[in-house]
Every structure is written in structure tokens, then in C-alpha cells.
Design a protein that fits this description.
4 helices; mainly alpha; 88% helix
């Protein structure tokens, strides 16, 4: 986190803390005010029955005022936090853009230096490679691939034929074994390998 972000965050946190303390004091003040009003109501109720209605009206007004105050303070805190959040996001965005633009400028400078170096390289020093060895090597590799493919295909076909022959021989063997099993035991012994 950069120093600016840290300071901005610390400042925002101190503002939020101050707002919280202010809200807490006002809420405590409201509870004390409510306590005083309730005591007055209790005394008035014992002293004068007519003042009960006025006291109830005062309490309702006080509660309404407290609700409005809490609502206003809550809204102010939300507005302050939103402003701080927007400010922080904007600051972060600016920092990222500045960092990226400097890195892109450095990269562009390096690319231009490389391009200048390559363009300043004299033609006399550039190696001139003949192309015929590359074409010969390419042709040899292509021929090797074709030959390997041809022989691979032939081996595959021979393997497929041998597999079919092995299955045919196995089926013939099974049929012969079935026939041998139907023979009487004295003839069956002639076909066993003992």
C-alpha cells in the first residue's frame, strides 16, 4: 500500500471514528434527556393529572426528534463513508494509471532502443546463410516422416490381419474342444497332453 493510500485511509478512519464518537455522545445525551423527561413526567403525574397529556406530548416529540437526529447522523455517516470510498477508489485508479503509463513508456523506450540497435547493425556484419541446406534438411525430414508413416501403416495392417487370424484359430480350437468333450472318455484321453 502506498504512503498516500495509507494516509488517506488513516484520515478516513479518524473521521469515521470522530463521527462514531459524536453519534455515541448524542445517543447517550438522548438517553439522559429521556431519563430527565421521565422523572419530570413521574413528578407531574403525582402532582397534576392534567400535565400528563402535555408530558406525553413532549416525550413523543423528544423521541421523534431523537429518531430524526439518529437518522440524520446515520445518513451523514453514510454520505461521508461513500465520499471517502469514492475518493480512495479515484486515488488508487490514478496511481495505477500513472504506474502503468510509466512502465509502458519504459517498455516503449526499450523497444525503440532495440529497434535502433537492429537498424544500425551494418549489413556487412549480418550473416548471410544459404538456403539450400535448410531446404535439403526440410526435404530429408519430410521424406523420413513419409517413410515412417508408410511403414507404420503396413505394420498396422499386418497386425490387424494377425489379430483376425488369432481369433479365427481360437474359435476353431474352442469348437474342437467342444467336439472332444462329446467323445467317450477313452477317446478323450488321446487328445489330452499328458
Amino acid at each position: 500500500m502506498s504512503k498516500m493510500e495509507s494516509e488517506l485511509r488513516d484520515h478516513a478512519l479518524s473521521l469515521i471514528h470522530q463521527d462514531y464518537i459524536l453519534v455515541e455522545k448524542q445517543i447517550q445525551g438522548l438517553s439522559e434527556k429521556l431519563s430527565v423527561e421521565l422523572n419530570l413526567i413521574s413528578q407531574s403525574a403525582h402532582q397534576i393529572p392534567k400535565s400528563i397529556n402535555e408530558s406525553l406530548k413532549d416525550i413523543a416529540d423528544t423521541i421523534e426528534e431523537a429518531e430524526k437526529t439518529v437518522s440524520n447522523l446515520s445518513q451523514e455517516a453514510r454520505t461521508a463513508m461513500q465520499a471517502i470510498k469514492d475518493t480512495e477508489i479515484e486515488a488508487i485508479r490514478r496511481e495505477v494509471l500513472i504506474g502503468l503509463s510509466t512502465e509502458l513508456a519504459k517498455t516503449q523506450e526499450v523497444a525503440n532502443n532495440i529497434r535502433k540497435s537492429l537498424l544500425s547493425y551494418p549489413d556487412a556484419l549480418r550473416p548471410e546463410t544459404p538456403l539450400w541446406p535448410l531446404f535439403t534438411l526440410s526435404a530429408a525430414v519430410m521424406a523420413a516422416v513419409i517413410v515412417c508413416g508408410f511403414f507404420g501403416w503396413n505394420m498396422y495392417q499386418q497386425n490387424a490381419e494377425l489379430y483376425k487370424d488369432a481369433i479365427r484359430i481360437y474359435k476353431t480350437y474352442e469348437e474342437q474342444q467342444k467336439v472332444i468333450q462329446t467323445l467317450p472318455p477313452e477317446y478323450r484321453k488321446k487328445f489330452t497332453l499328458e
